[in-house]
Design brief:
The protein has helices at residues 9-20, 26-37, 44-55, 63-72, 74-83, 116-123, 127-134, 171-183, 203-207, 230-239, 244-254, 276-286, 298-305, 307-319, 337-341, 343-356, 390-406, 419-433, 435-447; strands at residues 151-157, 163-169, 215-222, 322-327, 330-335, 360-361, 367-370, 376-377, 380-381, 387-388. It is α+β, with helices and mostly antiparallel strands. Strand 1 and strand 2 (163-169) form a beta hairpin. Helix 10 (230-239) packs across helix 11. The radius of gyration is 27 Å and the shape is globular.
Length: 454
């Protein structure tokens, strides 16, 4: 414990406001704090240097984090102990109402939104509507009236007794999220290893670096979207330069705390494929503000919030002589002899990094695939070249052939409401992976006689 007394809260608050209103450089902070105190005390510059070392290369701190730093700074406490009676506030400086991006974000061409009022104008909503949609106090999580919820919810059963919650925003919130996506998030570069939901990249570019490799390691993340909490999203917006209040509101618009009433109809007897323990765990996880799977802004935010883990895994892969790519929650590593010798140990290190970054590996889906077996990533095969799985291609070809012979209604066994679009989407996937095979399927598709209800 420090032997020096702690400065009083008013003094700390004034210094925090001065620091946050300056650029994150030693000279700017020194000048700003000196103006606040009315005198260039000798202890100010060393304190500014310690602040820059602590915060300048990370996420822009919140005001409370700056106050905590000042409270624990030994140099400031020593100065307060010796000259507390002389240290007075000559001029109060408010927290910044201007964009202050982190150094690496200075070139991001994001729109300038410095105040809450500017944000309401940018979104075309009132101040009350902004508060309502952002829901920073998590009031919506306690609402039982479905008409007041900002999202529509659908629960899907998955393999191994697990489940997925689809959270689809209602029109007005969806429009706000779409604007955030197109005018802010699309202007922030994703990590080169991220291939999902990035313009110019695809499943094909995700799998291509792993073609004809001696060994391929596939890992899968559990509950990728709900693992990304609002604090991480708000930190991204602060890094882009938005003041704390604006960043919090943008984060609130992009995240959701699921209302408790969503889970009332999910009972073990109602759906035997969903483990009741999984439902309980999901209630706890989704109760905290998280990225909703179904919002237009969520995929881009997930990529950007995973930037640090992509950096760490890319560095780990380089050290092991391997390649690394990620498509949403699918992770792929591949290499030759050097990587093959330590691939199991490498998987443990990768899982540890992911856990440190707030993600969890779905270990039952981890696969080490060597030559001689099918090397399979996100629906495509990578043994010789990027290709679709032959059995999947043959099934789709047979379905299209039967549609031509017997009509599409005879093949819609899963009762898709728009079977034509369903088939077109599956063909488009094949065309992306293997254009020649896709062309053969497209010719069959063009022979099908669809009726309006198909």
């Amino acid at each position: 414990m420090s032997k020096h007394p702690e400065p009083n809260p008013a003094f700390l608050s004034a210094l925090a406001g001065a620091i946050l209103s300056a650029d994150a450089t030693v000279d700017a902070i020194t000048e700003r704090v000196s103006r606040t105190l009315g005198k260039p005390w000798r202890w100010i510059r060393p304190m500014a240097q310690r602040y820059v070392e602590r915060f300048a290369h990370g996420v822009r701190p919140r005001r409370r984090e700056v106050v905590a730093f000042l409270r624990s700074d030994e140099g400031l406490r020593r100065a307060w102990s010796r000259r507390g009676g002389e240290l007075t506030i000559a001029k109060w400086l408010a927290a910044p109402q201007e964009m202050q991006p982190a150094p690496k974000a200075a070139q991001w061409p994001v729109p300038v939104i410095a105040t809450e009022g500017a944000l309401t104008e940018w979104l075309g909503v009132s101040a009350g509507e902004l508060e309502w949609f952002a829901d920073l106090k998590r009031l919506m999580a306690r609402r039982s009236e479905q008409k007041l919820w900002h999202y529509s919810y659908r629960i899907l059963a998955k393999n191994y007794g697990s489940m997925r919650l689809i959270e689809s925003p209602k029109p007005r919130l969806k429009a706000a999220q779409q604007k955030i996506l197109t005018e802010i998030l699309d202007r922030i570069p994703a990590h080169p290893a991220a291939h999902g939901f990035v313009r110019g990249r695809s499943i094909r570019t995700f799998a291509a670096p792993h073609v004809s490799r001696r060994v391929v390691l596939r890992m899968d993340l559990r509950d990728f979207f709900p693992s990304i909490r609002s604090g991480r999203v708000q930190a991204l917006f602060r890094t882009a330069g938005y003041p704390e209040r604006v960043a919090d509101l943008l984060g609130g618009l992009s995240t959701n705390a699921t209302p408790r009433g969503v889970w009332r109809n999910v009972q073990p007897d109602a759906d035997a494929n969903i483990d009741p323990l999984v439902v309980y765990e999901a209630r706890q996880r989704y109760a905290w503000p998280h990225l909703p799977q179904g919002a237009p802004s969520s995929p881009a935010l997930a990529n950007l919030c995973a930037y640090r883990v992509d950096c760490r895994l890319s560095g780990l892969a380089r050290a092991a002589g391997a390649e690394y790519t990620r498509y949403a929650d699918d992770l792929a590593f591949s290499g030759d002899e050097q990587f093959d010798r330590g691939v199991e140990r490498f998987a443990v290190h990768a899982a540890a990094i992911l856990l440190e970054e707030g993600f969890e590996v779905h270990h039952r889906k981890t696969r080490v695939m060597r030559r001689g077996v099918r090397q399979y990533l996100a629906g495509v095969v990578t043994n010789e070249h990027v290709n679709v799985v032959r059995a999947d291609f043959d099934r789709l070809k047979a379905t299209l052939t039967n549609c031509v012979k017997h009509g599409p209604l005879s093949q819609n066994r899963e009762d898709h409401p728009d079977f034509r679009s369903h088939l077109a989407g599956r063909i488009a996937f094949v065309e992306m992976v293997n254009p020649q095979k896709g062309m053969r399927l497209r010719k069959l598709f063009d022979l099908i006689e669809f009726k309006e209800k198909d």
